[in-house]
Amino acid sequence: MPLQTAVLVGAGDVGNCDNDSGRHAQETGRLLDKIDGTVFVAGDAAYLHGNAAEFAGCFDPAWGRHKARMRPSPGNHEYVTPGATAYFDYFGGNAGAAGLGFYSYNLGAWHVVSLNSSAPAAAGSEQYVWLQGDLAINRDARCTLAYFHFPRFTSGTTRDGLAMIDIWRLLYNSGVDVVVSAHHHGYERFDPQDADGLPNPASGVREFVAGSGGAPLYPFMGIAPNSAQRISAYGVLKLTLRNDDYDWEFIEAGTEALLDRGTAVCH
User: Which of 5, 100, 140, 148 has its CA 20 to 30 A from that of 120?
Assistant: First the structure.
């Protein structure tokens, strides 16, 4: 296969209309101005209620100019508005089928899945069954990445990741390489691990938490098992995806400093 290179870049927890938070969202948006590729939004795009006014006034001024290349996933704040209707109206077809919040696409040589951690995700749920089928159809993909809002693992104060434990087990058993989440406002990188948090360098899933898009930062509460890096800063996660491997860079808003970077091979 000819070498293919693609970029997936973004963060979650972005558009807060508080003056200081709005400034940070503007800064992360300016990072996107300088990076080509597909933009992911890992949930909580518009605070505090995910309504149309907040998408228009809090998210759109900071990141909206990149909407045509965005592939979002919903967060819990989107669902403060019943059915996350403003989220689906704002992103349109780029958010998949209206009302579901899960879909997939191919990016270069990679298969990418966007999931909904605010929808039922237990084994047997509509989302779980869909994901089973999607991963089976795309089992020949050399590299696979998934993103959704609630992190399964975090050193932060947010503890909602058990909602996705069955999904995580399915992703792990299917050989998925990378999971990106948000919800904790900051950046964290984990070493590859299984769905129970046990280290597995050979076939584990590497999780990134990038809730660093602009909403007020949260403190870390100790160090979770397998956590390799924790950074309290605003910024975006840039993933450069190739046929058999990938690079990651966490780029700080305002300074454009590379605060974390590395390379890994797909399973």
Answer: 140
